């Protein structure tokens, strides 16, 4: 027999629910809400990432005779270097960020060229996209992603009044093409796909007609197909993905072991550090391509949902900044960074869940890799700077610092 709540109890429940939504609405209406959403979600993701690198990399590092804490120590080092750099960027104004964009773009291109000198190496993975600078090893393509976002935003903000003329987009096309060619020359298809996603995000934000975007997408898909067919290693990955039930002893078993890891985690996981698949099933993929599977095994469904929630908060905050900004540059930067991170997150998690073929894309903030972590932190710093430049945030910060708002002088015509 169905029961109904008394009218007074029903009104109390509705009032409680509306008050909770009201509190959320009040919090989001605050001038610095975007800033704190980005700050909180990125700090929590970076902190969780440090713990997951410590857990997921220990076995592989020990087997490689590097010591169980080798990758964790490097991750913590880049985290310590990246946090003050991100804080410094978050305090910069728009003109400074625009100047830095040219330095970043030039530096990224120089580093990408150096990869093909004796300083470059492939780290045993077949992709020549690392630089060995003695005590420091970096992956230039990770920094190129951020450089492209900020540099293209600056170029487009200068040309915003003439973007209806196709020839005005030539510098942006050339910049992306140079980076894409350098990355593909190093045989890194995963990073090339991320850069292509950033490129299409930029074009979509500036309002390029869908028929042109669709044509370029078709050309891109055809190009990817050619690159896959011409590489036996890539073809093996695609065939393994398309035939999941066939057993090939020569094919990598990491994808199916990642699914086992996620399934074993259950609701609450086996506990931090208790993963079984990192002991051989996922091998070197446990700390980068399949770190989400290790996370699911150790922290369970609740842990994976919490991580997805943090990425959703970061994505929402990035879109919010882009929509609320009155600066064309900040709008483009916020949209570009958000599109880049969300695309990369979806691809990495899709691979870990065996929904996509393996492409070798790290999970932002979570996967092991100092260059990727540093690039992510710098991107967050720039996103925070854009959040501080929202109109309401600018006024709130001016009041907080004790600055008086600009005086307004009106001229009134005394003639009747």
Keywords:
mainly alpha, 3 strands, 14 helices, three-stranded antiparallel β-sheet, 416 residues
Notes on the structure:
- By secondary structure, the chain is mainly α.
- It has one domain (33-390).
- Helices cover 67% and strands 2% of the residues.
- The protein is built from 14 helices and 3 strands.
- The protein has helices at 7-28, 33-63, 70-90, 94-114, 140-158, 170-185, 189-205, 210-229, 232-242, 254-265, 291-324, 328-352, 370-388, 391-400, and strands at residues 120-121, 130-132, 137-138.
- A 3-stranded antiparallel sheet has the order 1-2-3, with no helix packed on it.
- Strand 2 and strand 3 (137-138) form a beta hairpin.
- Helix 4 packs parallel to helix 6 (170-185), helix 5 (140-158) runs parallel beside helix 13 and helix 6 runs antiparallel to helix 7.
- It is globular.
- The model is unreliable at 408-416 (pLDDT under 50).
| Structural class designation | mainly alpha
State the order of secondary-structure elements, H for helix, E for strand. Answer: HHHHEEEHHHHHHHHHH
* Number of E-state strands: 3
Mean pLDDT: 87
Percent helix range: 55-70%
Strand percentage: under 5%
Report, as a whole number of angstroms, the end-to-end distance.
78 Å
Q: Which sheet architecture does the biggest sheet show?
A: 3 strands, antiparallel
- Low-confidence residue ranges: 408-416
Report strand order across the widest sheet.
1-2-3
Number of domains: 1
What's the total helix number?
14
Q: Radius of gyration, Cα only, in angstroms?
A: 24 Å
Shape: globular
